[in-house]
């Protein structure tokens, strides 16, 4: 996912009249959100661990809540429209004063809250005047989405690691539980303008991770992100796209069909309320959510200036695994990954090595070794005598013994053993290598 993707911010636009018209049919927020959840369709990946989690999101809002809780949820939805993602003063206000108080101050006006300049406060107040949380919930419902607040059963606990930069809530499309899926997830990110090598590697890694029961998380962008999502979907697995816009407005437009498929088979999530468009800063801030949700971030291809490196650095700050896939040293699109690998990142080449890092104890990658050659099975003494024979021509037992640093009798005994195995043959009083030994020797040289 790249930091340079273009997008324009749009006004929040909300008339109070529309909200008043809906008030009569929308006072019971719990009833409406439950109804919204009932209209969410889709299914999870093939892993058995995911199949029973599909209805977790419906349980979140079907629980009866009091009027106070309903209003608090509305206030949180209101704040997602007013406060930009990752705005730490806003997170601090919520932590210190609570959602209800912050929303009330923004609606009522008055002096700025601590940490906000007069100009910033004026901008927040202008947004607050146009925000309509009930309308946002209606729009989300129509798009098959729900709002997941922190502290609710579906809210991923690992997002708390972001501190005051934690999302005020997430808008989610798709049936499975985001919290359960995030517990066993890996981010696969990289260059938007990736090479064929990067796309192939991302798709292969994602497919193999999905087959091992892991959820693949990425940003839905062109290049590595899209390849990772397609790899997981193609394997019948689970994938989550974290967007830098409203979940009802897929971006980029060229991935509209892909994001719709993800919403049906997996999950589409984002911090921004319905209708919001991406901006360069929102892409950067979105990346912290990807890093926090997952156990580790795998960067497949990234130049020195890449949004994917922002995700990797956020993962490192949060104590998550930072992982890199090497590329050609001549490729500018791998230069950023190689810089990560020179630091704290861990080099991987396949899904087994990723799982060894992020998985449970005992999930080890297989040992990597070259092919076993027939000469590898010889006793050390026999290998030493075999190596003492010249590549061409005949050698005497005395000369062979001298080069093998052994006695002549031992060399003769080893030579007869090697002749029985087809490696040497006798010529009068001398010995020479057979064609079989010559071929085996060349093979051993090629594997060095």
Structural description of this entry:
By secondary structure, this protein is of the alpha/beta class. Helices cover 48% and strands 10% of the residues. The chain is built from 21 helices and 11 strands. The strands form 2 sheets. A 9-stranded mixed beta sheet has the order 1-2-6-5-4-3-7-8-9, sandwiched between helices. A two-stranded antiparallel sheet has the order 10-11. The radius of gyration is 31 Å and the shape is elongated. The two termini are 38 Å apart.
Number of helices: 21
Low-confidence stretches: 1-67
Instruction: Give me the secondary-structure category.
Output: alpha/beta
Q: Roughly how many Å apart are the termini?
A: 38 Å
Largest sheet: 9 strands, mixed
**Tertiary shape:** elongated
The residue-averaged pLDDT reads 84
DSSP strand content:
5-15%
Helical content stands at 40-55%
Provide the spatial order of strands within the biggest beta sheet. 1-2-6-5-4-3-7-8-9
Total beta strands: 11
Keywords for this entry:
448 residues, alpha/beta, nine-stranded mixed beta sheet, 48% helix, 10% strand, elongated, disordered N terminus
What is the secondary structure topology, with strand pairs?
Blueprint: H1 16-26, H2 29-38, H3 48-51, H4 56-62, H5 67-82, H6 88-97, H7 99-108, H8 118-130, H9 133-142, E1 145-148, E2 170-173, H10 178-182, E3 185-189, H11 196-211, E4 215-218, H12 224-234, E5 239-243, H13 256-265, E6 267-270, H14 280-293, E7 296-299, H15 307-317, E8 321-324, H16 335-342, E9 346-347, H17 351-358, H18 380-388, H19 397-404, H20 408-420, E10 424-427, E11 430-433, H21 435-446
Parallel strand pairs: 3-4, 3-7, 4-5, 5-6, 7-8, 8-9
Antiparallel strand pairs: 1-2, 2-6, 10-11
């Amino acid at each position: 996912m790249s930091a340079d993707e273009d997008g324009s911010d749009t006004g929040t636009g909300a008339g109070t009249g529309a909200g008043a018209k809906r008030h009569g049919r929308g006072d019971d927020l719990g009833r409406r959100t439950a109804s919204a959840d009932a209209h969410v369709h889709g299914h999870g990946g093939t892993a058995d661990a995911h199949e029973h989690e599909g209805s977790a999101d419906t349980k979140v809002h079907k629980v009866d809540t009091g009027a106070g809780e309903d209003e608090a949820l509305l206030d949180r939805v209101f704040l997602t429209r007013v406060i930009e993602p990752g705005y730490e003063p806003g997170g601090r206000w919520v932590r210190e004063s609570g959602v209800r108080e912050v929303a009330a101050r923004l609606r009522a006006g008055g002096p700025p809250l601590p940490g906000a300049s007069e100009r910033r406060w004026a901008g927040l107040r202008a947004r607050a005047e146009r925000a309509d949380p009930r309308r946002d919930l209606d729009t989300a419902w129509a798009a098959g989405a729900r709002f997941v607040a922190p502290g609710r059963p579906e809210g991923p606990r690992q997002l708390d690691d972001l501190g005051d930069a934690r999302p005020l809530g997430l808008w989610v499309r798709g049936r499975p539980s985001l919290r359960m899926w995030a517990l066993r997830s890996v981010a696969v990110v990289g260059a938007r303008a990736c090479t064929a090598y990067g796309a192939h590697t991302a798709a292969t890694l994602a497919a193999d991770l999905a087959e091992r029961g892991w959820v693949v998380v990425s940003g839905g962008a062109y290049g590595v992100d899209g390849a990772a999502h397609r790899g997981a979907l193609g394997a019948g697995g689970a994938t989550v796209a974290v967007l830098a816009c409203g979940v009802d407005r897929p971006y980029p437009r060229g991935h509209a069909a892909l994001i719709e498929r993800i919403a049906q088979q997996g999950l589409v999530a984002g911090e921004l309320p319905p209708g919001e468009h991406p901006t360069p800063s929102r892409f950067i801030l979105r990346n912290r959510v990807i890093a926090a949700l997952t156990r580790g971030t795998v960067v497949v291809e990234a130049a020195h200036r890449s949004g994917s490196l922002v995700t990797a650095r956020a993962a490192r700050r949060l104590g998550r695994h930072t992982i890199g896939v090497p590329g050609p040293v001549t490729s500018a699109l791998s230069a950023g990954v190689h810089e990560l690998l020179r630091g704290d990142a861990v080099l991987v080449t396949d899904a087994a090595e990723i799982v060894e890092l992020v998985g449970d104890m005992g999930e080890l990658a297989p040992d990597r070794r070259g092919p076993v050659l027939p000469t590898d099975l010889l006793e050390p003494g026999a290998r030493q005598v075999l190596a003492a024979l010249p590549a061409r021509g005949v050698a005497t037992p005395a000369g062979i013994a001298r080069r093998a640093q052994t006695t002549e009798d031992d060399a003769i005994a080893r030579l007869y053993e090697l002749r029985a195995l087809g490696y040497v043959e006798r010529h009068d009083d001398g010995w020479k290598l057979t064609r079989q030994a010559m071929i085996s020797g060349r093979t051993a040289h090629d594997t060095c």
